[in-house]
Amino acid sequence: MISVNEVQQLLGGSGSVVSTDGGKIGNIGQVYLDDSTGEPAWVTVKTGMFGSSESFVPLEQASVAGDDIRVPYDKDRVKGAPRAEADGHLSPQEETELYTYYGIHGYGAQTGTQTGTQTGTRTDTTTGTDARGTVGHDTSGPTTDSAMTRSEEELRVGTQTRESGRARLRKYVVTEHQTVTVPVAHEEVRIEREPITEANAGSALDGPAISEEEHEVVLHEEVPVVSKEARPVERVRVDTTTVTEQQQVSADVRKERIDLDTDAGTDVRR
Question: How many CB atoms within 10 Å of residue 231?
């Protein structure tokens, strides 16, 4: 059984009456208290276009699920319940018909009326509800007056920071072929002939007149020599910069509308 405290927390919010499988039946309308115990006994469910119709559902075997009331009935069962005016109390006949429809026996007029049969304006100081057992669902108060509060949702958009990706520096080695031109020198053999003169006659006549002789000259040449040395050429780092751009955000917001429904022949001054 749902307690009065749980009812007070649910009313004035945007809670719904849902079936056991979580399907929404309709919005919470009013909660009717048991006259003898003061405990919640019935809840009305707003169904139809713009919630223009209210169906009664017993809170026997019902439970609170977050902001919702979960009942062991589906939407078709609730919408097919006998009609009763949500005027603050249930007559013994209405109560008996509803209990019978929902298959709950041992309640109602046969065993003593428990819900919604007491009239008057006594106020329960512990719960803030009147003696009729009606708890209003309007945000203007737990027991509303003749005025109805219209509310609407307001779209509020902010930002939060999340990780969008990562960038990293990765160093690896590649090999490329280079060709460099370098000058190299080498010695070549050249024969020089000079006549005998007074200046070189001494060297020319030094030795036997006729002989065999060999004279050797060593030749030299330069060859390229390659060596490699690693040296730093630059520093590379990763940095970030913040770029601001405009994005459009769309969402559905709910707004309440209030329509006037009158009986035929009723004069309305606008």
Answer: 4
